[in-house]
Write a structure and sequence with these properties.
Aspartate Aminotransferase, domain 1, four-stranded antiparallel sheet, alpha/beta, Aspartate Aminotransferase, domain 2, 13 helices, seven-stranded mixed sheet, 2 domains
Length: 390
């Protein structure tokens, strides 16, 4: 029997960019002391108080079907969080709860694109972006940004790509580059979206991890609330990656349509997980800052470990839990470097090319191991690179 072309072509018949990760994981499972700097997974677990809230809810009987659109108290809590951060009036009618940010990206593109429509995204990009676009039947079109511009999208490049497109996907703070889009960049994005009548899908899962600059949500920009779909979750802000709890914020009619999609797809999120999410959000910004603190500290650890050498340069680490390292001085591409590093030093990193051609000649380091191991690993990466220079 023949499978659909849509499901067979999600990755366009190629790799999803995670081969080095899987090899490093297999080596570690075989007993080798691999330092995994590949995955954006916190090295702390979900806070025990959040797990206790989840446990109380589950053992209290909240294990049946939940409201598909999301429970009222969680939608209200998310709306309050967004309104307090953007200044834009936001109510529960603007929120649909979904099983994680990835489900949000999928649903947002379903809402914004018809089959065959062109959907724009920024390159470098999180590995699932083009596949998500293909999965809804749209055609992905990458807009390459440059390390020379701090990985900030340039308006002229956006304008050139936008003709005939239906949507633009952005991610600030950015995975993999660590870029935080500044006011000029966001104004350019806003202008292009309004001029070309694009939906803007804003992936804001790292909005609590800003080390330099300010996170700007496009929902807060003039004329943008009606055409912006915010995708977010508690995965990064509250170390709840496995709980699969996220949302879309957008116009009420779009939320209603995505509710209908969820009815035919995920059929909601477990009620006890939603109760834990309400509890997590009730802890306020102090809880978010506690989860973010190790990465703020480790950003400086990476910079200190790279000081005094020229083989490896860090792109500005303005946000998120990653460092994008430029290894072009070695003459190697990111994939070759990552594989050689894994073999020689037992350190797993992601090739920049896994995230698109904008990441060529770079590697992404996830700052997700303890401070001492991270410092040691980065120094060893730099020393390894130095042996390949010249």
């Amino acid at each position: 029997m023949k499978m659909s072309s849509r499901i067979q072509n999600i990755t366009a018949g190629g790799s999803d960019g995670w081969a080095v990760y899987y090899r490093a994981r297999a080596m570690k499972a075989a007993g080798q002391p691999v330092i995994q700097l590949t995955m954006g997974e916190h090295d702390i677990g979900t806070d025990r108080a959040i797990l206790d809230a989840m446990h109380r809810s589950a053992t209290g009987g909240n294990t049946g079907y939940a409201l598909v659109v999301g429970n009222d108290d969680l939608r209200a809590a998310v709306a309050e969080r967004i309104e307090s951060r953007t200044g834009v009036p936001t109510g529960p009618e603007n929120i649909v709860i979904l099983p994680g940010g990835q489900a949000g990206l999928f649903a947002a593109h379903h809402a914004a694109c018809d089959p065959g429509d062109t959907a724009l995204f920024i390159d470098p990009y999180y590995a699932t972006y083009p596949g998500t676009i293909r999965a809804v039947g749209a055609v992905p079109r990458a807009i390459k940004v440059s390390a020379d511009n701090g990985f900030q999208p340039q308006r002229r490049d956006l304008e050139e790509a936008a003709e005939g497109a239906s949507s633009l996907l952005i991610n600030s703070p950015n995975n993999p580059t660590g870029a935080v889009y500044d006011a000029d960049t966001m104004d350019g994005i806003s202008a292009v979206c309004q001029h070309h009548d694009l939906w803007l899908i804003s992936d804001e899962v790292y909005d609590t991890q800003v080390w330099e600059g300010t996170h700007i949500s496009p929902r807060a920009l003039p004329g943008m609330a009606k055409r912006t779909l915010i995708v977010n979750s508690l995965s990064k802000s509250h170390a709840m990656t496995g709980s699969r709890i996220g949302w879309i914020c957008g116009p009420a009619d779009v939320v209603h349509a995505i509710h209908n999609l969820a009815t035919h797809n995920t059929y909601g999120v477990a009620g006890f997980v939603q109760d834990a999410a309400v509890f997590a959000l009730s802890q306020g910004t102090a809880a978010e800052e506690a989860v973010a603190a190790p990465f703020r500290r480790r950003r400086q650890i990476v910079l200190d470990a790279l000081a005094g050498q020229n083989a490896v340069r860090a792109a500005p680490i303005s946000g998120a839990m990653y460092a994008m390292l430029d290894i072009r001085a070695t003459g190697m591409d990111g994939e070759s470097f990552a594989n050689a590093l894994l073999d020689a030093e037992l350190i797993g990193v992601m090739p920049g090319e896994s995230f698109g051609q904008g990441g060529a000649g770079h590697i992404r380091v996830a700052m997700t191991v303890d401070d001492d191991r991270l410092a040691d690993a980065v120094r060893r990466i730099a020393a390894f690179a130095a042996t390949r220079v010249g």
